[in-house]
Amino acid sequence: MENAELVGLSRQMTLRRQMDIVANNIANLNTTGFKGQSLQFEEYIMPVAEASDFSFRDRTVSYVQDINSHFDLTEGAMSLTDNPLDVAVKGQGWFVIDTENGEQYTRSGSFKIDQSGKLTTSDGQTVLGEGGPIVFSDTDVNISIAADGTISTQNGNRGRLRVVEFGNETALRHVAGNRFTGDGARPAAAAEVIQGALENSNVSGVEEMTRMIAVTRSYSAVASMMKENQDLREAAIRQLGTTNN
Amino acid sequence: MKALHIAATGMKAQELNVEVISNNIANMRTTGFKKQRADFQDLLYQDLRRVGTETSDSGTIVPVGVQVGSGVRTASTARIMSQGNVEQTEKALDIAIRGEGFFQIDLPDGRTAFTRDGSFERSPDGELVTIDGYTVVPGVNIPDGAKDITISANGSVQAIVGNDTTSTELGQIQLARFTNKAGLEAIGDNLLLETNSSGSPQTGNPGQEGYGDLLQSYLEMANVDAVSEISDLIAAQRAYEMNSKVIQSADEMYATTTNLR
Lengths: 245, 261
Fold this sequence. Notes:
The complex is a heterodimer.
Chain A: H1 3-27, E1 37-46, E2 61-71, E3 78-80, E4 87-90, E5 94-99, E6 102-106, E7 112-113, E8 119-120, E9 126-129, E10 132-133, E11 144-145, E12 150-153, E13 156-160, E14 163-166, E15 173-175, E16 179-181, E17 185-187, E18 192-195, E19 197-199, H2 205-241
Antiparallel strand pairs in A: 1-2, 3-19, 4-18, 5-6, 5-9, 5-14, 6-16, 7-8, 9-10, 11-12, 12-13, 14-17, 15-16
Helix pairs in contact in A: 1-2
Chain B: H1 3-26, E1 36-42, E2 45-49, E3 66-69, E4 72-79, E5 86-88, E6 95-98, E7 102-106, E8 112-115, E9 121-122, E10 128-129, E11 136-137, E12 147-151, E13 156-160, E14 168-172, E15 175-177, E16 185-188, E17 191-193, E18 202-204, E19 213-216, E20 218-220, H2 226-258
Helix pairs in contact in B: 1-2
């Protein structure tokens, strides 16, 4: 009899987690290069007791389980910023960032120059070019970045941004700071670098709002189901427990 | 359920975004003002089912795990140092810089500040000063009775003094430039200070490579673009609203749970 409650609880747990994901997507509505996530569920069938003596067969009980959170890798809208150090990738491609935890990959090209002239991300991590970090000299002006990632100034070539792609992008893992980690990076074949633009977050506000409403509604639906189940049990105890005299 | 806290980080971030945008709009007509932009980053992720872990003895692995993020944070409010438009003022001591450099200003406390605001004046004792009365470095002394002051593109200040028929050189304006000018620290009054991340200033005459030219009788306007600021403002406000809705519905879910009994 408790099965209904347990099944309900499994659903509520996944709904809470889905709510967290929706909240994270909405919180990152304005985060450059952010990729929205969604949760996928799976039926989890409880193994039944083996007994053939009953007149009716045991029915299987299905729980729900969140099986994976995949991120939506569609390209976010480009917004023009006219800032020479803002770059966006068009097509499949990721910038390579050198961090203390090894190479990480990002679609957020809001770059800066640090005190030594090195190209960095907005939190100060080194951006890697084909031949290591990209360093500007003190007198460099008019930084221009070509579609293939070649960076040049009036003093000449300063290197080329390393843009990579992955055979299986869905296997990438989110880490903080708009960055991802993963294996099997290879030079991007069809990516194009656009200077003076940033890729917006690909989260669609409307979609997330509807998903959020759906989550709250199903949550309360499960709750009322559990309530009814409880009432049922209460009624059963009351009726079965009363003696005839 | 972390949704409440996640949405709170979102609201905080958008609040700061609105602050940055409103400061840009407020300074739309401030000489030499450089707009700022808030850059956001996502926070840590929690692995509930880690990608790549084995799911059976035969070596099958989880292709995509379950990762739940924990919100957003502001990475920087970087100053965008693009050139502002120049506007003619017909005032001899207004100077605009076309290029990378900054004017150097001596602060009363002995530090040197940097500015793009070239609306200078002549102090009672003839020094070239900012509108707050701080001297421009290196000093240019304009004697009494100097007329027809001309400031050339490469910074030399000349004027006709007294009854002379030819102009005399009064001084040379120098500019400073930085490896990372976005790393300068703003202290208000259109002034910026050098920091560890900006690197130390290199000085040179205007017209030299990488320093920029001077333009007399012009002022550099703010590089704020009203249209894009307003559209950013709308986007920020909507994002704020959506985050507040998330808080509401997370609250509703808690209420549902509480009302179970």
